[in-house]
Design a protein that fits this description.
OB fold (Dihydrolipoamide Acetyltransferase, E2P), 5-stranded mixed beta barrel, 2 domains
Amino acid sequence: MLKFLNNRNILEDLLILMLGALLVFLKLTNQLNFYIRKDYFLFTFLMGIVLVIAGIIRVIVDLSSEAHKNINHHSHCSCHDCGDDCHEHKHSSSFSLVIICLIALVALGGFVIPRKPLSAVTAVRRTGSNTFVSGSGPRQKSGESTLIKNINTDKYTIADWIRSFTLNPEPSDYLNKIVDIKGFIESNDADSFRVTRFVITCCVVDATPVSLIVDEPIGNFQVNEWVYINGKFKVRVKNGKREIIINPDKIEKINIPDDPYL
């Protein structure tokens, strides 16, 4: 068996097989959503199946080829006859075993390490547009009446509200609008905290944090804990800027949702 592991092709075959198996496993256990958008689930799953099939076929072919080569080699050369060549094979076998063990550890980690979504630490590192603060000047004469009042916002996520603020940044247009959201606590001030979600375009590498401010002390909650918040928007003035914030009626700790990213 060690001689089979000398074959670089077989090592590559095992890599392909393990990668494919991991992709299939993540899809079947509903854990792909910790890495990529739902739009890519089917493609990733099919790619995993293709890699598994390709890996199995390649392993069978290369093992057969290697076995045939070893039979021919032993018929012409023994350790006694080939001396240095035999020792080289032993060293190569040891090196191959190390590689296989490393590959196995990586694959095993992918199968058994619990999945966790990106945390508040990552959100802080990726700051930018993660907290929306609307204009600080006097009230703008925007087209609020027709735009925001005619839209059903009952199922709006944090990302949906941020998009709405971008289109219509006038804070007073959102007064008393009902907010019903889920997210994790990113940070807090003495009298408020931010509830955050990550928005991904393709995968977690491009994840961008978006947040809303909650007008309530963090209390017994902790940073990174996931919460459900129900309340209404109000406007406050802080450091000369008007901010859209949530006046909460209900805050509950929840488990990490199945779809942590938006």
